[in-house]
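S1.2 Input.
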Amino acid sequence: MRVSKFPLVFGFPLILGACAAAVPGIYTEPKAGFSNISSQVTPAIGKRTAFAETQAENEALKKQVHAMVYRKTISADTAVQVALLNNKGLQASYANVGLSAAEAWQQSTPENPIVSIGILGIGAPELGAYRAIEGLIRSNVLDATTRKQRTAIADANFRQAQLSAVNDTLALANQTRKAWVDAVAAFEAVSYLRRAKATSDAGSELAMRLGETGALNKAGQAREQAFNAELAGQLAQARLSATRSKEALTRLMGLWGTEVDYYVPDALPALPRSVGRVTDIEAKALRNRVDLRVAKLGLEAQAKAFGLTDQTRIISDLEFIAGFEAEREIEDGETETVTTPQVEVEFAIPIYDTGKARMRKAELSYLQAANVLAERAVNVRSEARGAEASYHAAYKIARHYRDVLVPLRTTVEEEGLLSYNGMITNTFELLTDVREKLGASLEAANAKREFYMAQADLTAAIYGGGEGGGGAGGEGATLAAGGGAGH
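S1.3 Output.
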């Protein structure tokens, strides 16, 4: 008994397989899509990023991070670089790009044919038993004819995943830079409050001594001591805030163990001498915003999905089954063999589901993606305008505190000291002048913090990574380490 089935059984799947496009090499690369991410991140924020897939790569990055932070006072740029190399959430985002590449690879690969072989009839041939061998191969025709569309959808999703990873990178950079500003500003506030507390301690001690001599009544003593107690509470709260701010920065950088033994400067950098206008900021934002490109790819993917739904609206599953059946029967000592070819086509009859509901869903999904893109474009323009306005306003306010209020308070303090030396004013008036100058310095430091926050928001409005949907870097002065040993 021989089953002659090879010409049709094996030839048809090969014909279908020939219809499939060759698998693009980009999907099969070890770090598929990452080079594209890196090439977009570096020009935007001037920092490199890395995707570690092996233990050796992780160890190498760990050594680099340790060298950058261990017992060192780090700048904002260093903090951002460490976060891009060491944040595990960012590594997970890069891994998601690999997953989307694998999905595109899978969609571009032909579906495996299903082969079935059966034996019918059991018994001794010499007793006239009937016996047949059946061999069938099943191949999904619709899989081959729609593979191009499905691969295009998967490719759009792959490109979208890359841009999402770029956006995640920019967002992390922006968050880290702002966390660094927060931490440094918090420690700068602590230093001003510590000086104010020292002045208050002197005033409280003087009030107590004058009270003992009867030169100051109880109300005056209580007033100085209450102020000193309030300032002590403010100083404790400021120290707690500084500790929390530094811990938030540590978390974004992904540090633990001995790597947390780093410092930040005691004060933010001085304000730049001037800040210029960003020309055509709306156009720059529309051209560079990564989240806007993600929305565009989402619309493209929905368009391709709509085409696939339209193509399979009526027939959602179509299979071709081919094979041969060989039968052998022995009767009266004679053997008779009959070979019969078999060809079957299987498909679902659209009696209940005519595909209209799926078409409606596809139409609405496309409409939804189009509206999301339109809204994103409007928001990007608004965020860019608002960020530039806030940036220049914050600079003017910080300049006002630095150039007007603090010098005036300094003059009051100096004149008060001269009057005190000339026995014109008393000690408590002098202490009040010192406190008010320290208060003005504290307000100036906070205004400076707001400026650097606005600077980060401006670059995020251009490239993405901000709270509205995108990153940091690029425009404006780069933050450098401030003075002092740090914390």
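S1.4 Remarks. The longest strand covers residues 318-331.
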